[in-house]
Amino acid sequence: MYRTKKGEEIFVIDAHIALWDASDQNQRNEHGREFIDCFYDYHRNLTPPEYHWNREDFLKYSDKTLVNDVFNRGYADMAIFQPVPLTDFYKEPFGSLEKNDKLAQQYPGRFIGNGSFDPRDKEKGLEVLEEEAKKYNLKGVKLYTAEWRGDSKGYKLSDPWAVKYLKKCEELNIKNIHVHKGPTVTPLNRDAFDVADIDEAASTFPNLNFIVEHVGLPRLEDYCWIATQEKNVYGGLAVAMPFVFARPRYFAQIISELLFWTDENRILFGSDYAIWEPGWLIEKFMDFELPQDIVDETGAVLDLNVKRKILGENAARLYDIDISKQKEIIQKSPTASRGEPIA
User: Fold this and answer.
1) How many whole angstroms separate alpha carbon 23 and alpha carbon 94?
2) Which residues contact 188 (CB under 8 A, 6 or more apart)?
3) Which residue(s) pair with 176 in the sheet?
4) CA atoms of 332 and 343, how far apart (whole Å)
5) Is the confidence at residue 70, as pLDDT, over 70?
6) Computed from CA positions of residues 88, 91, 94, 97, in that sequence, does the dihedral angle turn out positive or negative?
7) Would you say 164 and 125 are in contact if contact means Cβ atoms under 8 Å apart?
8) Are 235 and 270 in contact (CB under 8 A)?
């Protein structure tokens, strides 16, 4: 829970975290190393020096490290796992639904574990999705449209098999479709993360919520033009958030454009842990104010009410979380208070 200097409480949901294994032992080939090194470069270049991780810890970290960083040092009340398998690069999945669920069972009320699918798995993948939806009570999935699979270097949400999977999500009441539409990650192809296919998917499936992770960066303008038309399109701030430190003027431009084109009800906070820790991101975001010239141009408002929505209330609405009831559940969850590490 984040408390302002005046004592107001803000319920925080970190809508984009991962528990990954990019260790040398799990890397299938050089692409596994390239991928995690690219993540590490983002971490080093956009993180305050006092929060830098060493590379060894970054490759693979423990459950306890995650819990401490996200909840005890990070203000988050809840967090949403967004797993990516990347099994062409790693022997075991880079992000594991099973491991995420195990942690969620250990800390009741703290985690939501999303699933994933790849339409290139065709009929077999549909069966797996249905099985996982029932086993894990999935409320969302994370899609990585640029993930390599054999000779394929990516897919689009408009592909026939992708449409079948989205129909299946609708049938299974998996209503939150998180799609990485942001910066490329070595060695993946930039164009496979293009945001354009969100438009058709959102129009075709109005009952699904399409959360565009990383708000389409570096295609922010494309995202905004789509989101202003498609009211079931939301922007996830993971990757945009660290610019509040590294490039505050740039961050001001990003957040003001989002507020101008859509509104404060369709923006979700995400740290992209473990690339960045939520604690310092939230602190700097809460202290952040828009420059007056940008306010004059866009009319954007980033007051406490707006920040409260971005940090938790919007994600709570998408995931049918009653915040008052959730606070009671969390009080019984075996996590320490902020600043008290898990033993």
Assistant:
1) 9
2) 35, 146, 147, 148, 153, 154
3) 140, 209
4) 17
5) yes
6) positive
7) no
8) no
Using alpha carbons, select from 34, 4, 19 the residue that is nearest to residue 102: 19
Whether the model clears a pTM of 0.90, i.e. scores above it, the answer is yes
pLDDT band at 342 (very low <50, low <70, confident <90, very high): very low
**Regarding beta strands 78-81 and 111-113, do their DSSP bridges make them parallel or antiparallel, or are they unpaired?**
parallel
Using alpha carbons, select from 324, 211, 327 the residue that is nearest to residue 269. 211
Q: Which residues contact 178 (CB under 8 A, 6 or more apart)?
A: 16, 82, 114, 140, 141, 142, 143, 211, 213, 236
- Tokens 């528990």 — which residue? 19
High-pLDDT (> 90) share of the chain, %: 94
The conformational region for residue 154 under phi > 0 = left, psi -120 to 50 = alpha, else beta, is left
CA nearest to 243, candidates 304, 275, 284, 187:
284
User: DSSP label at 27?
Assistant: B
Residue 312: HSE in the Cβ half-sphere, 13 Å Cα cutoff:
23
pLDDT at 89: 98
For the residues 237-263, what does the mean pLDDT come to? 97
Quick: pLDDT tens for 275-305.
Answer: 999 999 999 999 999 999 999 999 999 999 9
Please state at what angle helix 220-229 crosses helix 197-204, rounded to 10 degrees: 20
**The two structure tokens encoding residue 204:** 């075709």
pLDDT in tens, 254-271: 999 999 999 999 999 999
- Over residues 136-141, the mean pLDDT reads 98
Q: In the numeric block, which tokens belong to residue 132?
A: 């996982």
The stretches of 191-238 forming alpha helices (DSSP H) are: 197-204, 220-229
d(CA 35, CA 273): 15
Tens-place pLDDT, residues 71-85: 999 999 999 999 999
CA gap 28, 90 in Å, rounded = 5
